[in-house]
Amino acid sequence: MSTPLPLDGIRIIDFTQVMMGPVATQTLADFGADVIKIERPQGDLSRTSFPDPAGPLGPVFCSLNRNKRSVVLDLRKPEERQVVLDLVRTADVVVNNFRAGVMERLGFGWEDLSKVNPRIIYAVGTGFGLEGPYAHKGGQDVLAQAMSGVMHRRSNTDQPLYVHATTFADYSAGMHLVQGILLAILQRQKTGRGQRIAVSLLDSMLAAQTQEGAAHLMRGKEINWGAMPLSGVFETSDGALVMVGAFKADPLGDISTALEIDHLGRDPRFTSFEDQVANKPALQAIFRERFKSNTTAYWLARLEAQDLLCAPVRSLAEALEDEQARINEMILEGPGEIEPMRLVGSPIHMSDAKVTLRIPPARLGKHTEEVKAELTRGLAAE
């Protein structure tokens, strides 16, 4: 007999689309929740956001929608709206990531659905919050980067402002949404009541800067971990590496040994940490010259011999092909609707709850009749 997954028996009605919401509900689905994805007749926007030979089952959609059932409902029709209410009566959690007020206008707000099912957990992900001057502003990852201060903070203020290529805000807010849902499930075991949970892209980005934020709030000072004088990204003769000169008694001495040069700490420009900060351009110019003189592999071996933190700068393709990714089971493979699936796996590894591809990313509406039939049987039994 197989071990039950942690969320077996938990039903989630999922109105989310694009990334923040779907990455949250996929995490819950991976660990056993019955996630019923409610899609409009046109489908989740991520089915068509990037043209792909597989059409609405391209990699962008598949990456966030495994282990879910797809149900298409036209919420303009009363009979389809009734299906939603019937589903809510059977569910534990309802999740959406619409702008504030959208679900309320549909008649599916927290107040509406808690009357239908007092045990329902109502989880909302927005761009900027449920109230306030930005509540009705469209939320998106890049906007959250800009408005939270993340985009403004760079390792080198001489760099132009830029958009981070990875959707940090969407992913982190999705993980906060998962945390809120799990906490609410635990609290419901004590109280018997559901509750509303709200997270936002803006709040997640502010929370990610918790150390920097506290330094500003309490001391009026800025902390910039990327601007430390003994850390940085350095080109080599055949690539690039990163070095972090920290957590050592004499990091500059160890770096000097690794770089095969005299101890730079004897140079009056670099004697103290304050001197190193003040003369960072000159110090890092020495680092750049030395690193450029040999290969990435050579310098990594030298740095690691001094127990200095370092790593090669890799492309995503190289990272996915690394043996460590395979050992960590970060490539999830299995059959799909029209082609084999090769997806990024879950970063959560549990000895008694292995993540598998139980339900391939579904074609639009594949499970509509199946779910409606379950509801009919359930109502008949009642």
Automatic annotation (TrEMBL):
One of its GO terms (molecular function) is CoA-transferase activity. Gene3D superfamilies: Crotonobetainyl-coa:carnitine coa-transferase, domain 1 (3.40.50.10540), formyl-coa transferase, domain 3 (3.30.1540.10). The keyword ATP-binding does not apply. Keywords: Transferase. InterPro entries: CoA-transferase_III_domain, CoA-Trfase_fam_III, CoA-Trfase_III_dom3_sf, CoA-Trfase_III_dom_1_sf. It comes from the Bacteria. This is Formyl-CoA transferase. It comes from Falsiroseomonas stagni DSM 19981. The lineage of its organism: Bacteria, Pseudomonadati, Pseudomonadota, Alphaproteobacteria, Acetobacterales.
